[in-house]
Structures are given as structure tokens and as C-alpha cells.
Amino acid sequence: MNDTNIQDIPKIHTEIIRKSEEIGFTMPSDLYVGSFLKTLIASKPNGRFLEIGTGIGLSLSWMIEGMDAESKLISVDNDQELISIATSYFGGDDRVEVICKDGADWIKNYTGLKFDLIFADAWPGKYSEIDGVLDLVKVGGFYIIDDMTKQPNWPDGHEDNVVELTAYLEQREDLQLTKMNWSTGLIMAVKK
Ligand SMILES: C[S@@+](CC[C@H](N)C(=O)[O-])C[C@H]1O[C@@H](n2cnc3c(N)ncnc32)[C@H](O)[C@@H]1O
């Protein structure tokens, strides 16, 4: 199997990579996790989806392409410049709400419906507010994180955070986990 032969790359992908380079945004998600998110989202027609850590919308572009016409998605980032760019790409899609807010504050204050899939791609929702974010996953819903195997841009000591988070997820009896040493290291959890 050639797993590099990824199909269905969003048309806007080239533009988002170009813009990321222009503004020096070095954290966009890779093709593998993008494809994975799109596939999982396609399993949830009329679904509700959440991303914490929009960036300028690379993973968001994949998530949107997995959604059907009835689905809704919220994506949150605390950087106004990044959110403005993401809004310029996706603001016209009325299924999508892009919010500029601290992710921890957003998780603590959100009172709406739970989600079929949460992609937690910022500190909040992964290394803080973990119980809060997991409370927002529906039974049968997915909680997805990446960057769980050592990356060149990890700050000193970040391995300890990753080990602690992984151990925490492993001991939660309400989660079914699969850890994948693929892409940047993914954990997929399903809420039981
Ligand atoms: C790994 S990048 C996200 C990449 C994005 N998912 C993509 O595919 O391009 C992490 C993002 O989290 C955002 N972020 C950092 N701290 C945050 C916070 N406290 N609340 C919300 N977003 C935060 C950063 O601005 C950054 O865009």
C-alpha cells in the first residue's frame, strides 16, 4: 500500500500552504491527519464538529470537505490575524463558525450541544481543560489529537506533557483508544 498517495486534497490546500509560508505560520496540520479527519467526519451525517486551534484553516479545510450539507462546525483560535485569514477562506460557509477566543475560556463557557468529533489542536483541549473538552464529546463521538510523537518544533520538556496526557487518556474508562505512530502521532478516542 502506498499511503502517500492521498486522494481528494482540498482545492484550497495549495493556497493555505502558500499563505502559511507568506505569514510564517509553521504549524499547519499534515495531509495524513487532514485525510483522517475528513474520513471520520464523513461517517457522521448531520454531525456537529469542533476544532480547537484553527490556524489559518488547513485541517479545517479537510474537515469541511468531509461534512454533509446539514452538518455544523465550530473552530476556535485565539490569534486574530490567523482567524481573519481563516474567515476570508471559510466565512461564506454558513455551516461553519470561526471564533476568535481563548480555547480554555471557550470550553469553560460553551453550553450548546455536544459534538460528534473534536479535533483538539491547541494547548487547551489537550494539555488543559481535558475533562471539559471530553465532556463535550457525544457517546460514540471521536476525540482526535495529533503531534503525539516527537516533533522538531517541540519545546524542551514537552515529552513529559505528552506522556502525562497519554496516560490520562488511557486510564479513562469512558474512552476507547487507539494510538497510531503515523502522521505526527495520532490518538483516536471514542466516547463510550
Ligand atoms: C498546531 S496550530 C493549529 C494548526 C491548524 N489546526 C492547522 O491545521 O493549520 C495551534 C493553534 O492553536 C492556537 N492557539 C494557541 N493557544 C491557544 C489558545 N489558548 N486558545 C485557542 N487557540 C490557541 C494557535 O494560534 C495556533 O493557530
Automatic annotation (TrEMBL):
Any matching Pfam family: Methyltransf_3
Residues of the signal peptide: none
Gene3D superfamilies: Vaccinia Virus protein VP39
A GO biological-process term: methylation
Keyword terms, alphabetized: Methyltransferase, S-adenosyl-L-methionine, Transferase
CDD domains, per the entry: AdoMet_MTases (cd02440)
Entry-linked SUPFAM superfamilies: S-adenosyl-L-methionine-dependent methyltransferases
Any GO MF annotation of the entry: O-methyltransferase activity
InterPro entries: SAM-dependent_MTases_sf (IPR029063), SAM_O-MeTrfase (IPR002935)
The protein's name in its UniProt record: Putative O-methyltransferase YrrM
